[in-house]
Design brief:
21% strand; single chain; 3-stranded antiparallel beta sheet; alpha+beta; 2 helices; 4-stranded antiparallel beta sheet; rod-shaped
């Protein structure tokens, strides 16, 4: 009489465990890297928002003929944005500067700080970029290269 097998053999279970271990060892580093990539993407999104806000604000300043003056303001979506030579100024959120023009909340970007003449926007420290105010009618505002070593 033939015996009917009732379960898996020990060798079959060991082979399955080895295969699962190999899959886990190759997949975990890929998922770990996703956090860094997400921070870099968030930083690039903020840089894109700042560049767009610069362009829109400057276009509004040109239309209103205030682009070459030292200080002026424009209204974008009901918010007053303060300008220096046609570009948004560095100012704390809620004060009519580049953060307000770009719609960047300091609660979402914890590495954000405002200094005289520049605003540092970051996800964390060493995962940031700097917005520098325009200094004259011929020197526009600058969005610096992002530092991603700390992302």
């Amino acid at each position: 009489m033939k015996r009917i097998q009732g379960g898996f053999t020990l060798i079959e279970l060991i082979i399955v465990m080895v295969i699962l271990g190999i899959l886990a060892a190759t997949a975990i580093p890929r998922y770990y890297d996703a956090h860094t990539q997400a921070d870099i993407a968030k930083l690039n999104a903020a840089a894109g928002a700042v560049k767009s806000a610069m362009a829109i604000s400057h276009a509004a300043a040109l239309v209103n003929s205030v682009a070459t003056t030292g200080s002026a303001s424009v209204v974008l979506d009901g918010a007053t944005i303060n300008l220096a030579y046609g570009y948004p100024v560095s100012a704390a959120a809620g004060s009519g500067g580049i953060l307000d023009a770009a719609g960047i909340s300091t609660s979402d970007y914890t590495g954000t700080s405002v200094n005289t003449g520049n605003t540092v926007i970051g996800v964390t420290s060493n995962c940031e970029f700097t917005y520098t105010d325009a200094t004259s009618a011929t020197t526009p505002a600058v969005v610096g290269t992002a530092t991603t070593s700390g992302c």
